[in-house]
């Protein structure tokens, strides 16, 4: 029951959240930026054209081995032609969107938040075909970096289950299956 209520609340907040700029509780601005594949890897996905078209601003597109540009947008909807089997739900503290796990290869995604005083909070996620981990962060304790990898196999056995949390940056990441994402989005 609690999980269902959480999913419904998440759906409502996800629908209301912007894709790029979010006002944080402290009044700062959040920008979701940089989306690059790991060295020598390709990150390919088919996504909702409206979502991709809505993304502008500081987003740096990923490049494949051939130099072709591929974007990994934050999804607010899952289409039938999206091959991802799982997603990372990003919340800062409200849901921002879903990042698809690649069907092959790996990619990184940098999330930048700018506080009112101008300081930047940076978290770098590393996504693989089976899970994700926090590759780097500029928070003090580095607890999020030390939480290890969340995979489809270990997500129910870890201390934080399917989540990695960066408390100083008020960022939480949750690995969810395609079915869970579809249920959350009411699709």
Structural description of this entry:
This protein is of the alpha+beta class and 187 residues long. It is built from three helices and twelve strands; from the N terminus they run αββαββββββββββα. Helix content is 16%, strand content 34%. The strands form three sheets. It has a six-stranded antiparallel β-sheet with strand order 1-2-7-8-9-10, with no helix packed on it. The longest helix is centred in the N-terminal third of the chain and has 15 residues, at 2-16. Residues 3-64 and 66-71 have low confidence and may be disordered.
Topology readout:
Elements (H helix, E strand, L loop, with lengths): L1 H15 L5 E2 L5 E9 L11 H6 L7 E2 L5 E2 L15 E6 L3 E6 L6 E8 L5 E8 L3 E7 L12 E2 L11 E4 L4 E7 H8 L2
Antiparallel strand pairs: 1-2, 2-7, 3-4, 5-6, 5-12, 7-8, 8-9, 9-10, 11-12
Q: What is the gist of this entry?
A:
This protein is of the alpha+beta class and 187 residues long. Helices cover 16% and strands 34% of the residues.
The CATH architecture can be named as Sandwich
Summarize the helix and strand pattern as letters.
HEEHEEEEEEEEEEH
Given this structure, which CATH class is correct? Mainly Beta
Strand content: 25-35%
Overall pLDDT = 73
Helix content: 10-25%
DSSP strand tally? 12
Inertia-based shape: globular
The main sheet orders its strands as 1-2-7-8-9-10
For the biggest sheet, the summary is: 6 strands, antiparallel
| Separate helix tally | 3
Low-confidence stretches: 3-64, 66-71
Q: CATH superfamily assignment?
A: N-utilization substance G protein NusG, insert domain
Q: How many structural domains does the protein architecture include? A: 1
How far is it from the N-terminal to the C-terminal residue, by CA? 19 Å
Q: What class, by secondary structure content?
A: alpha+beta
Give me the CATH fold name.
mini-chromosome maintenance (MCM) complex, domain 2
- Gyration radius, to the nearest Å? 15 Å
């Amino acid at each position: 029951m609690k999980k269902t209520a959480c999913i419904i609340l998440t759906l409502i907040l996800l629908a209301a959240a912007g894709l790029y700029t979010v006002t944080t509780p402290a009044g700062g601005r959040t920008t979701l930026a940089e989306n690059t594949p790991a060295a020598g890897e390709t990150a390919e996905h088919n996504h909702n054209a409206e979502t991709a078209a809505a993304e502008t601003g500081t987003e740096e597109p990923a490049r494949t081995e051939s130099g072709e540009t591929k974007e990994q947008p934050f999804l607010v909807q899952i289409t039938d032609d999206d091959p991802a089997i799982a997603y990372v739900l990003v919340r800062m503290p409200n849901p921002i969107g879903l990042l698809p796990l690649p069907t092959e290869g790996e990619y990184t995604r940098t999330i930048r938040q700018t506080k009112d005083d101008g300081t930047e909070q940076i978290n770098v996620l590393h996504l693989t075909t089976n899970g994700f981990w926090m590759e780097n962060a500029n928070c003090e304790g580095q607890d999020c970096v030390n939480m290890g990898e969340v995979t489809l196999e270990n997500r129910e056995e870890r201390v934080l289950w399917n989540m990695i949390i960066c408390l100083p940056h008020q960022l939480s990441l949750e690995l969810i299956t395609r079915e869970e994402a579809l249920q959350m989005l009411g699709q």
